[in-house]
Design a protein that fits this description.
With 417 residues, the protein is of the alpha/beta class. The protein has helices spanning 3-8, 33-36, 38-43, 50-54, 122-128, 130-137, 159-169, 185-197, 201-214, 219-222, 239-250, 256-263, 269-272, 286-310, 324-341, 357-366, 371-395, 406-411, and strands at residues 88-89, 97-103, 109-113, 116-120, 145-147, 150-154, 183-184, 233-234, 274-275, 281-282. Strands 1-5-6-3-4-2 form a six-stranded mixed beta sheet. A two-stranded parallel sheet has the order 7-8. Helix 7 (159-169) crosses helix 8.
Length: 417
């Protein structure tokens, strides 16, 4: 490999993978309960139900996990028709099929979700979800549809999302995830959406824990994962779009910087969106797309500053080779020449959090530096990445109260022995 190729074609790994800003006044507010839960609105009487009408508006019901706060939840596009006022019987047919795993012969209620039927246990679901309790209270045998003598409740969510939720609630899916048994991000995203919507608080807390293990506020945790996830989660780059929408839904500030950062690395998916299993398309809100585009500019600047800092022609104070200073100067000049020819390329790209360690090793192989100067370059690389992480929320245009500053930890004095 030539020196020019080693310098201008930076060899780096893929991005080592992944809060909410203060919401502006014009941002969409929590929708009415009827808009969020059309299933419930279709079943209930005209007088307000005490659980549904008052719960979202009462501060005492607001949990720290954001489960009760419903901000960007809307399933009106999938609204189910109202139940008939007289008794009707629904039979399993070619268009409606029982779920092979979630049809219990001794179940006492049927959830009908588009063309899928789930026969489950009413008491089990109502024990963990006030929303299911209110839905089921409207499904009385004398006034509702039945299927195999069980009351039927229409659910308008995507069948896959409901299936993921019921599998956990009915004990068919181990959760939390066992290390090594990686969950697909689509499943985790469904659990977050559904547990948030139906107020399954324990499940929501556990799902958010796994969510924040990948889209973390801690650089040390970030560095333990890879571009395809971690020990618990398998992820693809476009999943960052879903992650941003989930962060907005749950008001999870600490997720946004890394999720926005990963969106900065996307190409066509950034504007086209990503197709979900139910056929819908996951897209960024216009304001988040604007944050990504602005963030890219900041990341290019950070990458340029980082490259110049690492190659600053100042050898280590412990340098034992008089040629190191000259070598560093020539490397810096060649890098600046590359920046002029390709302002947004391998050197000044969007992946400002990537380590330069592979590039440093190539430079050392071509231009031997003494061991102290080589160690110094790796130390500069780590300092540059820590500084980018510290400033990442600002680069992404968001505010995070609990963002961890790695530069503060590095500067802290060692405890006295």
């Amino acid at each position: 490999m030539s020196l020019r190729k080693a310098v201008l074609q930076r060899i780096t790994p893929l991005p080592s993978r992944t809060p909410s800003p203060s919401l502006p006044h014009e941002w969409p507010q929590s929708p009415d309960t009827d808009a969020v839960f059309p299933d419930l609105a279709a079943h209930r009487e005209h007088e307000p139900d005490e659980h549904i009408a008052t719960r979202p508006k009462s501060p005492e019901f607001m949990s720290s996990t954001g489960v009760v706060k419903r901000w960007r939840v809307s399933i009106t596009d999938h609204a189910a028709p109202a139940l008939p006022s007289e008794l009707a019987s629904v039979s399993l047919s070619g268009s409606v099929k029982r779920d092979p795993d979630l049809w219990f012969e001794d179940g006492n209620i049927v959830l009908l979700c588009r063309d899928s039927a789930f026969r489950v246990y009413r008491g089990l679901l109502t024990r963990h979800s006030v929303i299911f309790r209110d839905l089921f209270s409207m499904a009385q045998p004398s006034t509702s549809e039945t299927m195999e003598s069980c009351p039927v409740v229409h659910i308008s969510d995507p069948p896959d999302d409901l299936r993921y939720l019921l599998r956990v609630m009915c004990g068919l899916r181990k959760f939390p995830i066992i290390p090594g048994e990686r969950m697909e991000f689509a499943e985790l995203a469904a659990l977050i959406r559904m547990s948030h919507k139906y107020h399954v608080e324990d499940l929501h807390s556990r799902a958010m824990h796994h969510f924040k293990l990948y889209f973390t506020n801690d650089l040390a945790v970030w560095d333990t994962a890879g571009v395809d996830g971690n020990l618990f989660l398998h992820i693809t780059p476009p999943d960052a779009i879903t992650a941003i929408n989930l962060a907005r839904l749950t008001h999870t500030d600490s997720v946004l910087p890394t999720a926005l950062y990963l969106c900065c690395q996307l190409d066509a998916e950034l504007t086209a969106g990503v197709e979900r299993p139910d056929g819908s398309t996951e897209r960024l809100e216009p304001k988040d797309l604007e944050l990504v585009l602005r963030g890219r500019t900041e990341l290019v600047r950070a990458s340029t500053r980082g490259a110049c800092t690492i190659c600053k022609p100042s050898p280590s104070p412990q340098c034992v080779n008089k040629g190191c200073e000259r070598a560093l100067r020539e490397v810096l000049n060649m890098m600046l020449d590359g920046l002029q020819k390709d302002p947004i390329g391998d050197i000044a790209g969007y992946a400002a959090l990537d380590s330069w360690e592979h590039w440093i090793e190539d430079v050392v192989d071509l231009w031997p530096l003494c061991e102290p100067c080589r160690t110094m370059l790796h130390a500069r690389d780590l300092d540059v990445r820590r500084d980018v992480w510290k400033r990442l929320p600002r680069f992404m245009g968001v505010t995070v109260e609990d963002w961890k500053d790695p530069t503060a930890a590095a500067a802290a004095p060692a405890p006295a022995k």
